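Submission sheet (multi-component)
Chains listed below:
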Amino acid sequence: MTIQSTLAGSYPKLPTEPGDVNVRVIRNRVDAGRATEKDLADAVSATTKRVLDLQEKQGVDLPMDGQIAWDDAQTYVARGLKGVMIAGLLRYIDTNTYYRQPEIVGPIEWTQPITAADFRAAQAMSARPLKAFLPGPYSLYRFSKDIRYGDPIAGAGAYGVALAAEAAALEEAGATWIHFEDPWLGRARAEDARAVVAAYEPLLAGRRAKTMVHVPFGAPQQVFDDLRPLPWSGIGLDLIEGPGGWDLLPRIPEGRTVGLGLLDARNTRLEEPAAVAASVARARAARPDLDIHISPTASLEYLPADTAEKKLERLVAATRAAREGA
Amino acid sequence: MPRGLWTTTVGSFPKPPRLEKVRQQAARGEATPEALHAMEREETVKLIQRQDEIGLDILVDGELYRGDMTTYFAERTPGFAISKPVRSYGNRYYRKPVAVGPIRRKEPWTVAWWKFAQEQTKKPIKGMLTGPYTMMDWSFNEHYPSRAAMTMDLAAAVNEEALALQEAGATHIQIDEPAISVRPDELSLAVKAFARATEGLKAKTITHICYGDFHVIYPALLDLPVDQIDLELANSRYDLLDRFREHRFTKEIGYGVLDVHSHRIETKEEIKEGILRGLEVLKPEQIYVDPDCGLKTRTPDEAFAKLEAMVAAVREVREEKGITG
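Outcome: structure written.
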């Protein structure tokens, strides 16, 4: 049994120190014609390096690249798929953040790697292996407007096939862990189970990398029995907004990893490391056999950069305390 | 002859570049608060004149003196602190309120601005507030034990301000609740808070809701104790009209026909088509035509061009259908 700290998605793009590269400012300059796309790419790269250095300095065991070039959690990938257009702005679940809605207008096809080059570039900046990020196929379908399939099983399944190809490209680029953000699993009902399975069966089959299916903003209680037999490596639980996740712990198959989302990514109130460690101990008491990833409940980009940094400190301190208690 | 198809806007307008510059200077201490306030007043006067010239029926003060729709109120309310910037979409950021103590309204938030704006025109100026549920949902909470407790304290504060606006003479009070559309499990809390926020009001009440999954909260949304619900129709390509066919929309509607996130100026013809589609399921006297949301994300030129197209489209539909304003 191991206990590791990790992120659960993107990281704030803004610097906390004056003088650091500010990708927001550069983007504004590009929009105003006072900087070039190359300037923006350089700023994204510098910010990615800063986010990776910060995680290394803090001691995060399984860092992520922060998705500095992404506008939201799905458009970056969706716009790279054939058969998908990008349409109007919608609120991302119940957050006061937004995404542009993918619109499925033709058969969904993966034609070329979308995120692999970014992953390679970020991995080259990090001493530790990075966890790659992709949107979960079920949520990607639920976030989309389906004009083509008109059937969640077919549409979510098509996304599953396309994301499987992208996951293979990430494996080829060296990814050993891939994180799938799938908030709609926490809102799925029993009647949605066939679409959930259709989405994940092709995605998870034959994966070389380990896979973390992360469910922020709720617990996948209604579809967990259907997810259970699938070959995911880990299931990530938001134990603050989805306390029902505690009930799922005993049902996680042996040999898997559980992601414990114990630091609230949507509130500035700071957790006490000892309290987080106590929750980890509770999870270990229920399932001493599982490997554990301690993480924020979701992307830290819902927080201001200064608070995100403090949450990282607490994450690492809590992980240390949990290990000492193990 | 039927009446209807009045024109209005959702609330915010883009800040002119000279005002943006002085705001930035004031934030750095390079311009005085008095200089900033003077320019805000000057630009507000111009904006009201411009709305009059365009021919809108119900006007707004344009919120040129506000930053974000929650932060403006939080900055003036004990119990709130303000965070560093948080991203909302793409390259857009806002400073988010943080509840750090009991929230109480100590002084009027908007009454002086409303009075000033109303003095500039004979047309009604809407009083513009952010609703208690949205204020709660879009704030961090380091103080309250529950979301409900925070929401109800905010509802009491919003009610005090709404009554003060009414006392000052406002006949239209808009209390925006864009966050309502995303948490159906909390709709009853939002309804209860809205009822508290509008207690004792005789003015026409309006709420603006946008960018959420209306299919989930409709028709329960009609339980909101409000006269008019303002919705974005253009952004969702008028999909909502199908829902209105299944279950009649029973209140007045703010009928959004302009995509506020697009630089493109809609043509008069496409706006007309959208309005005509609405008239298939709504009565003209129910409809207040407006943009999908606040126009502050556009440039001033884009915002005015969009509104001119909208008013021209409404005039033609009124003429063709024999509707008076």
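Remark: Residues 33-54 of chain B form the longest helix (22 residues).
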